[in-house]
Amino acid sequence: MSNKLKNYRIKITFASIKKKAVMKLGYLYTVSEMTPWKENVNAETLAFLLSQTPIEFTPEIIRFDGFTEEILMKIREFDIIFNLCYGFKDVGQVEVAGWLEHNGISHTASTFDALVKAQDKSLLPSICGRLDLCTPSLWTQTDTLDDDVIYISKPRKGSCHRNITIESGKWMKSHLNTSTEDLIIQPYIMGREFSVAVIPSQGGKYHFALPPIEIKPKENADIYIAGQSFGATTKDFSPSIDESLSDGLMIAAEKLHKNIRLTGMSRTDFRVDHDHNIYVLDVNAMPNMDPVKSMMPAICKHHEVNISDLIRRIVDSVKYKGELQNKTLLSHELLS
Questions:
Q1: Residue 30 domain-assigned?
Q2: Dist. CA 184–CA 157, nearest whole Å
Q3: 65: domain CATH number?
Q4: Residues 141-166: tens digit of each pLDDT
Q5: How confident is the model at residue 330 (pLDDT cuts 50, 70, 90)?
Q6: From CA 81, how far away is CA 61, in angstroms rounded?
Q7: Nearest 5°: CA angle at 305, between 301 and 310?
Q8: SS3 for 113?
Q9: Whole-angstrom Cα distance, residue 331 to residue 24?
Q10: Distance CA 217, CA 225 (A)
């Protein structure tokens, strides 16, 4: 091969790399202390994501300090926004996503409508009912609770396992104030707890579930939740469960992701009672990406999906969704 041809091929290669690297990816975040639920978005999370950003993207960190024209102008400099913004002061992640959507910003979180459905736990019974899935019965008042049954109360739209109470119906009748707090109350399901991540495929054209992980209490307690609020827990990334249960959990997570019309990634929490019945507890439409504290990066790593690849898949899913929307608009224009 002549030196001239070699040099030409080298030039083409570098030109291709340069061309691929033009996509600007902005990581939009709010400092944890300024979010309603003090979500885990810190310097370690941002540094981790920057270090894992695929080479074909040019990344930058954008701090969200409110719904200002200045922030909007900055955001418009980017091709796609990786949405890590879990709210600002009293405004939640749903409203931030809605603001981005209203201003025509391509971002990695789901649509405003989808996030509303996922966040509001009181909607789960109707959503699960349509999909032939089970979720615990739900109350918003304490009057009809059975005194001797153990219940769990939690914020209707809350996250991060905060403001949760697990007590008897008798205790809740005398201590919970449902007139001033936006709570839901459900029977506490004794059994095993699992979490299932749903991520985009290569190219972002569809989504699929990764195998479940199990949340286990360290002290073999009957009452526990993920985290440390009701005793220390651990994560088992290869739980001892039969194939039918694993498949059932994964199918349920995929059904919820698709029915709610989520995009990007999601994580669904389940309880399995002693009779092997599966109950949907919660759908997290914007999982945290803290490299140490959050489940999503750990689940992906365990199943050999590196974070660089996950970022690429999520961005590809946004691009694919945009292409479908453009084709739909074009079709409507041609038919009108």
A1: yes
A2: 9
A3: 3.40.50
A4: 999 999 999 999 999 986 656 789 99
A5: low
A6: 10
A7: 110
A8: helix
A9: 29
A10: 8
Of 70, 67, 83, 82, which is closest to residue 24 (Cα–Cα)? 82
Number of domains in the chain: 1
| Residue found by looking up tokens 């694993």 in the block | 246
Q: What is the per-residue DSSP string for 119-180?
A: H-GGGHHHHHHHTT-B----BS-STT--TTSEEEEEESS--TT-S-EEEEHHHHHHH--TTT
Distance, CA of 8 to CA of 222 (rounded, Å): 68
Token match 């054209």: residue? 205
3-state secondary structure of 244: helix
Phi then psi dihedrals of residue 159, to 5 deg: -150, 180
47 within domain boundaries: yes
Distance from first CA to last CA of the chain, Å, rounded?
Answer: 56
Residue 118: both structure tokens together: 């996922």
The answer to whether 57 and 2 have CB atoms below 8 angstroms apart is: no
Task: Please state, in angstroms and as integers, the Cα–Cα distance from residue 202 to each residue in 2, 83, 95, following that order.
Answer: 38, 20, 29
The mean per-residue pLDDT over the stretch 225-247 comes to 89
- Residue 244 amino acid letter: S
In the numeric block, the tokens 């809605």 are attached to 98
What CA–CA distance (Å, rounded) separates 331 from 325?
10
Report d(CA 125, CA 170) in Å as an integer: 24
**Can you spell out the DSSP letters for 8-49?**
HHHHHHHHHHHHHTTEEEEEEE--GGGSTT--S--HHHHHHH
Retrieve residue 302's tokens. Answer: 């365990």
Q: Mind listing the pLDDT tens digit for each residue in 11-29?
A: 434 444 444 547 999 999 9
Domain that holds residue 39: 14-109
The vertex-322 CA angle with 305 and 319, nearest 5°, equals 30
Residue 318 covered by a domain? no
- Return the half-sphere exposure (C-beta side, CA atoms, 13 A cut-off) of residue 318: 22
